[in-house]
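[Meeting: bench + compute handoff]

Bench side (C.D.) handed over the final construct sequence. Compute side (W.E.) agreed to return the predicted structure before the next meeting so the bench team could plan truncations. Sequence as handed over:
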Amino acid sequence: MSRTLKSHKILNDPVYGFITIPSGLIFEIIDHPFFQRLRRIKQLGLTDFVYPGALHTRFHHALGAMHLMRITLDNLRVKGTEISEEEYEAAQIAILLHDIGHGPFSHALEFSLLKGIPHESISALVIGKLNEEFGGKLGLAMKMFGGTYHRRFFNQLVSSQLDIDRLDYLQRDCFFTGVSEGTIGADRIIKMMTISEDELVIEEKGIYSIENFLSARRLMYWQVYLHKTTVSAENMMINLIKRAKFLVQNGENIPATEDLLIFLKNDVQLQDFENSDQILHAFLSLDDFDVWGAIKWWKNSSDPVLRNISNMFLTRNLFKITLRNEEFSDEELENAQATLVKRQHISKEDLGYYFSHGSLSNYAYLSKEKINILTKKGEKIDVASAADLPNIKAMSKIVKKHFLCHAKNLIL
């Protein structure tokens, strides 16, 4: 690489204060166009329609996670866990790049702009490409990210029920949304982490911090991540992209950036990314601005669906949504659709773009992916089995809610 290697640069983060970039290699990764793209992808997608402050990006989150990883590794070293300099740097790279495969609007378009490809799969491909570009220097980080490194706790720090990813995004999302109920004691949780037989565990005295962490996560899901207005906006976005894909794939000429058009014209699958550098590089050029720019073009489209939903976004005229515990019956769905057709004068062919229904699931703790507590006697016990923590057992239950949303106040 022609750029001069730099290290120990300092960034000012609104959540943690000063963050140090610890090595020249990490500086080069952050400076890479693939990573800089994360500046243009909001962490919470369309959540700013509910919480106006939720404008932070995947770039913010990745740097924050890297910072917490460094603090965690330093703490583990103090407790006697041997971590080589190579492992120390690789773990920070693995968490830095864990979200590199996210596309525009993060989770909202993960299964509509693409063909059912989770962002983790794309992240793995991107880390592989960067490893080639950096002469194999990311090989250990790839193993940690993929869970193939023999020291299991490194992968647990990157991806588990108590990983560095969650510790950062809960704190960061709390800060930018102003939802104080999601506040967690990340510093104390990190201090309570230790390693037993190459497994990440929590010291017994940290058990109440874990209970608070799980409670906060559950609250954040209902109040922020699965807020009904966000669900409404996300379904609008999914339907808008579906309409754009339908038009393009049926020969219509609609304006969009070159990179976005690739994904509108084609139902891209994971093997397409694996077999085509062009597809991967096109995806790694996409960000929220490609979609917002298209929406500003589409607001004047001759196609009424594209035009209407685009204008609805730009004026925040969101779908009306009903969220409840009981599943909607076929009769209720049919009646809601008939009413929508009658009141909004929508054709039956276009109905699917203005009407959505489905379910949402929320769980704070999955007992099959344990968070283990290390007792003073040296025993490892699943946190849900702790005698005086009935709340965690309750949080292991998956709560499902059902939604129905539809357009209102259409101007056709």
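W.E. noted at the follow-up: Strands lie at 9-13, 17-21, 193-196, 199-203, 320-324, 355-362, 372-374, 380-382, 399-406. C.D. will use this when planning the next construct.
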